[in-house]
Amino acid sequence: MKQVLTLVVKLQPTSEQAKKLAATAKQFAAACEYINKEVKPSLSNRNAIQAVIYSEVKEQFDLVSNHVIRACARVAANRLTAKQKAKKVKGFKPTSFDCDKDTFRFREKDWTVSLSTVAKREHIKLRVSNYHRGKLSGQKPTSAQVCQHKDGDWYVHIQLKSDAPIVQKTSNVIGVDFGRREIAKTSTNKGWDGKQIQNTRDKYSRVRASLQKKASKGTRSSRRRCREILKRLAGRERKFQAWLNHNISKAIVVEAKETNSLIAIENLTGIRESTNKKPRSKTERRRSNSWAFYQLRLFLEYKGIKEGIKVIAIPPAYTSQSCNCCLHIGIRTQKKFKCTNKLCGWIGDADLNGALNIALWGRSVNTPRGSQLLTCSITEGLLKASSSALGG
Ligand SMILES: [Zn+2]
């Protein structure tokens, strides 16, 4: 499997060049909107989309062929993600466009990139740090995204592909239980307390509530200021969540590497989609809806691929209700799990029981003779969809 590192490098365009980048991004977004509107929603394969709409788009928009192809691919990728999250495709902002090996080239001798734009090809200087130099030196990247960030400046996100380490065969499994009392709990009894994040969330939600109140009254300018602050707060909360997820996933992957284990998690995606398997509780509903857990899983998979550690997702049924020793259904209260089997009688932390169950199922799935506990299919990799969307 290939792993992809995305390097974000600031561009230093002249003001003329910046105008051309903006014009290209505008055309690219308009083309995406058009494609998304005209091609029937059930199509989410980029080749299929391209087959039905390419010539129309090429005629109507001021874009080179490869940009049209990338626009088709962008719509396909967004449709796929939307499908996974059971949401509609969001609009396309005129702040970015995707490039391939023909529309983007990196030149090491003067640290520039050449980019196709609506006008002509432009050579734009990169602002490279030593880190960037180390990563880019000797590379011939074949795909990139040109983006205007919130600060108004232009950046290029360069995808660097390399071979991922080969996944080792192993029978060790670390089970990870997501977000009941703790954000994550491993079967090796490591936990990340949800308290800190809950407190932060509460703080933000209190501030938000008061700002929203203010945003509905007051003068026009003070209302606008409240809205701006609200937006900034949302960004900060998201960054905090991402920071936390990075740390948790890093620690779990490090442990998996040290103990030569694979990582088993619950498959929380798709709970919402299936009608006959409604989430059983409020907590589960929150978890299946939560972007945060989706992100945590994504991070685990990313870091897993880098380190050659397999991440498998098992169906979430029974992981919280059955006993990890004897598989009997037990009683769980907020914190404790108690096995009702008189011969067993395991009592312990409910989240740990969940994680141990996940590890158990993961182990059984990963044995050479195949599954002993379950016959249903195991999902692997949210990343498959997104890595194919990157353009193979
Ligand atoms: Zn038991």
| First-to-last CA distance | 11 Å
Mind telling me which CATH architecture of the largest domain this is?
Answer: 2-Layer Sandwich
* Cofactors, ions and other ligands in the entry: zinc ion
Structural class by secondary-structure content: alpha+beta
Predict the CATH topology of the largest domain. Nucleotidyltransferase, domain 5
Count of alpha/pi helices: 10
Radius of gyration: 24 Å
| Order of adjacent strands in the largest pleated sheet | 2-6-7-1-5-4-3
What is the total tally of β strands? Answer: 16
Question: What would you say this structure looks like, in words?
Answer:
This protein is α+β, with helices and mostly antiparallel strands and 392 residues long. It has two domains: 162 residues, no CATH class; 168 residues, 2-Layer Sandwich (Nucleotidyltransferase, domain 5). Helices cover 45% and strands 21% of the residues. Strands 2-6-7-1-5-4-3 form a seven-stranded antiparallel beta sheet, with helices on both faces. Strands 10-9-8-11-12-16 form a six-stranded mixed beta sheet. Strands 13-14-15 form a three-stranded antiparallel beta sheet. Helix 1 crosses helix 2 and helix 6 runs parallel beside helix 8. The longest helix has 39 residues. The protein binds zinc ion. Zinc ion (ZN) binds next to loops.
